[in-house]
Write a structure and sequence with these properties.
Layout lengths: L2 E7 L5 H9 L8 E3 L5 E13 L2 E10 L1 H9 L2 H10 L12 H11 L16
Antiparallel strand pairs: 1-4, 2-3, 3-4
Amino acid sequence: MPFAAITYDIKAGHEKEISEIFGNFRRVNSPVVRDGAGGETARILSTAVFIRDATMVRVIEYEGDLDAVARHMATQPGVREVEEKLAPYLSRPRTTDTVEGFVATFRRSLLTCMAQMSVRDLPAA
């Protein structure tokens, strides 16, 4: 299962406020990502958010097409709400108020995966 990590440039010193934003996060309606015809194109398995100083990183474990995951996230009320609430704490604004803007920002914020390992990748004993 691949992971994706996206960065947020934030104003340092607001960890408590940002933690409260994510503490009240409304989960996505469904982890299943569907295309226009209703076929499953991806699945969001888990997410985590990390913060230190002026950097926040959101890690997403997923299956399938990452662009489809980004498009799915762009339409989710909870994700849109978090993006809106984070705006005052960002040192670099993110254009996420449209699906196209969200996807473009997602791609720009994506970290390059250098290595990924999981016990799930080990051969069965």
